[in-house]
Write a structure and sequence with these properties.
2 strands; 2 helices; two-stranded antiparallel sheet; rod-shaped; mainly alpha
Amino acid sequence: MVTSIKRSGFTLIELLVVLAVVATLLSLVAPRYFQSIDRAKEAALQQNLSTIRDAIDKFHEDKGRFPGNLEELVTARYLRAIPKDPVTESQNSWIPVAATKGDKGGIANVKSGAPGTSLTGVPFAEF
């Protein structure tokens, strides 16, 4: 009596074909994924800059002077906390822009200290 054993499973060729298809799909999707992450960081950077600048303006309107540093905005409760720069992932990379002497000094503006440029070619420091 001859017994035949039937083995089920995938052959090496079938597995290689599936892996090749998956690798091809990943090579098409990965660049879009990383570009969308960069786009989200840029949008968050612009929003954080807008929030800080708005707090500086409100502080100036209420107190008649510009804040001496960003921590003063938190102390005076114009900001809950200093937001992170999403590109550098740090709260300490903001570059304060001093007010003119006619404005009694202080910080009149803030810029990003992130190196490099955005997807549109504009340096982060110019946002």
